Every structure is written in C-alpha cells, then in structure tokens.
Request: fold
Amino acid sequence: MTSRTGFFLLSGALLLVSLICVGEGVQLIATGKPLGIGLGLCAFVIPGVGVWFLRQTVRFGRASEQLAGELAAEGGLPVDELRRTGGGRIDRASADEVFARRQAEAEQSPGDWRVFFRLAVAYADAGDTPRARKTMQHAIKLHGSTDARSNA
Reply:
C-alpha cells in the first residue's frame, strides 16, 4: 500500500468517525441534561481537532510537493547517493555523511529554501522524521517569503 492510499483510507476513517461523533453529540445534547449537554459539546470538539490536523497535513503535503516540483524543474532535487546494505536499507554512516554536507550547505545559505528542502530529505534519510518535517516546514516558510518578495 502506498503512502497516498494509506492517507486516503485513514482520512476516510477520520471523517466517518467524525460524523458518528457529531451524531452522538446531537443525541446527547437533545437529552437536555447538563451532563449530556457537556458531553455532547465535547463530541463536537474532538472531530474539529481531527479535521484541523487533517487539513494541516494536506497543506503540508501539497506545499512539499510544490517545492519538489520546482526543484525538479530546476534540476536541483537531491541525488540518491546513499550506500545501502545487502537488504536495501540505507547505510547509517552514508546517511550521516550526506547529512553533514547538507547541514553545512544550510549554514552557508540560511535564506535559501532549496538547501533546507535538501536538508529535510537528509534528515528523513537519517531516520529523524520529526526534524525532517520541521526542516521542510522551514523550507516552505522560506519559499513563501521568497514568493512574497518577488511579487512585491
């Protein structure tokens, strides 16, 4: 199963559960009892938070794909230069070498979204997903500020 398929399946499940929660919330509020009303209102908040997270994830994915598309058009996507084990896994030392180079590039060009995109890929290759995501968000933010300056 691809990541995209898994995302759509989980998104569908989230929306289905959200509809069920809202339905249950309506029934609880309809009881007219203070406890039922309180629980019913909470049943509205939980799906709202879930849908907000889903929206943020979709926005992040689209922005990441947009940056990847721009880099591909420029010929600037990072080349897979990682050594692999016999089983196909990324060699940790190789990932660390590439990461060190990408980090040095980012320190030399702190305002270039392209180097931060490549650094995010290096973080992901090194297995540090939270930092990869945070770095990609930084690249997206830099890209947005670059677009704003070029449009002004």
In short: The first helix runs from residue 3 to 30. The chain is about 80% helix and 0% strand. The chain has a mean pLDDT of 89. The CA atoms of residues 84 and 91 lie 5 Å apart.
